[in-house]
Design brief:
Elements lengths: L11 H31 L6 H4 L1 H24 L1 H12 L1 H7 L4 H29 L5 H29 L5 H19 L4 H9 L12 H11 L1 H30 L4 H29 L2 H20 L3 H29 L5 H30 L1 H8 L1 H13 L8
Helix pairs in contact: 1-6, 1-7, 1-8, 1-11, 3-4, 3-6, 3-15, 4-6, 4-8, 5-6, 5-8, 6-7, 7-12, 7-14, 10-11, 10-15, 11-12, 11-14, 11-15, 11-16, 11-17, 12-14, 13-14, 13-17, 14-15, 15-16
């Protein structure tokens, strides 16, 4: 095989196609963000908040577990095969939701959605890092996450509009079937990045030693043993713990203050829209000024944005809070994955990324579980405020323990 040159511009068409694919990956989640919490309450009559958020718990745990194994599988069998399998599974999600006769079917559909997201999103980010040069990793991940969360925001708004115009189900989920089919077709066209990865293995500058590591060693390093990798894992977990709470409680919280479904859909969409938009700049910024500052301050911005949303009482201020919450998330999301790319050797980078994404996306489940239990005991408002402590503490932890990983030329 011919050795391929690495770099975003050197592989512009391939890289752009991967960006577009992740737009559709994110859209699969966006359909649910406005609708499912309301669907559980109104159509299935779930009175308990923790029961209503069970679909997020099933999604979070399944995505986290699949993330862990997706990296190892991709290191052995290639990225493209895993990407296609993810789309094949994702096609069943909207179909099951349309024909759901009981809440457990919704929960099962979200297990499949977690598998879909774990396989497809993991592969698009790993393939972009394979293609990018070492000083382009933040930019590459930023563009990947921009596309994904733009898809989340777009479909959160579209599904909210369709639900207010028609009904909570089935109309919005017809769109989901089309999204899955287009995503699979585009993934058939994209080329695998095996040769780009081989080029990086031949000439890399990772901070960790380039030697064969077992899955157990990689898990220990990424989870707690290496101070920088473990800081990234805890920050990722805290970020998605906050997002799991926001996904489940924002629609319920804003409905209690009198907002309509379309207004709730707007706020729920603005948060990931800001998250996606700002990643166009924060990923590239981390390639210029370094990773650690963006991680630390980004975690703190998330915490204070949540507290801000609780003390204001006007639609425009809630919109402003959602924008800042998206900004804080955008500061850390591509940066944390760039940290993994900086530290891990190309030989085991996808596996380390899988461990990081395991911890990060388990935050969805832990966030929904904690938020639901706290909300049932002391109310939705207190639940949001208490969950905000986690990103604040993660910012402190990263400030103390994380090393700067960007190598200056």
């Amino acid at each position: 095989m011919v050795e391929r040159k690495n770099g975003i511009m050197e592989n512009f068409l391939q890289f752009t196609l991967l960006v577009v694919i992740n737009l559709f990956v994110g859209s699969m989640v966006g359909i649910e963000r406005t609708i499912l919490p309301l669907l559980g309450e109104k159509q299935f009559g779930l009175a308990s908040t923790s029961a209503a958020l069970s679909f997020i718990i099933s999604f979070g745990f399944s995505k986290a577990i699949v993330n862990y194994f997706a990296g190892q599988i991709a290191d052995r069998f290639g990225r493209k095969r895993v990407l296609l399998i993810g789309w094949a599974i994702g096609l069943f999600v909207p179909i099951l939701t349309i024909y759901a006769h009981a809440w457990w079917v919704i929960v099962f559909a979200n297990i499949l959605l977690g598998i879909n997201q774990g396989l497809t999103w993991s592969m698009t980010v790993n393939m972009k890092i394979d293609i990018a040069k070492a000083n382009q990793r933040g930019t590459a991940v930023g563009l990947n996450e921009f596309a994904g969360y733009s898809g989340v925001a777009m479909m959160a708004a579209v599904s909210g509009f369709m639900a207010s115009r028609y009904s909570l189900s089935p109309e919005p989920f017809y769109v989901g079937i089309g999204i899955a089919m287009v995503g699979m077709l585009l993934s058939l066209i994209v080329k695998d990045t095996e040769q780009h990865l081989k080029t990086q293995v031949q000439d890399h500058g990772s901070a960790m030693p380039d030697r064969s590591l077992s899955s157990r060693e990689i898990f220990r390093l990424t989870s707690w043993k290496d101070p920088t990798l473990s800081s990234a894992s805890f920050s990722g977990l805290s970020t998605n713990l906050k997002d799991g709470m926001a996904w489940g409680l924002f629609p319920l919280y804003f409905s209690t203050v009198g907002l309509s479904v379309s207004e709730i859909g707007a706020i729920v969409a603005i948060y990931p829209a800001a998250w996606g938009f700002f990643q166009l700049f924060t990923g590239a910024l981390s390639d210029k000024i370094g990773r650690k500052k963006l991680v630390t301050y980004g975690m703190w911005v998330q915490a204070f944005s949540l507290w801000f949303l609780l003390v204001v009482n006007h639609f425009s201020l809630w919109v402003l809070g959602a924008i800042f919450l998206g900004l804080g998330t955008a500061m850390v999301y591509p940066t944390l994955q760039a940290v993994i790319g900086d530290v891990a050797s190309p030989n085991w980078r996808a596996s380390s990324m899988g461990v990081y994404r395991f911890w990060r996306d388990s935050g969805y489940a832990f966030g929904a579980l904690a938020a639901g239990v706290i909300a049932d005991v002391v109310g939705v408002t207190w639940s949001i405020g208490i969950v905000a402590l986690f990103p604040f503490l993660a910012g402190v932890y990263s400030h103390v323990r994380m090393d700067e990983t960007l190598k200056k030329p």
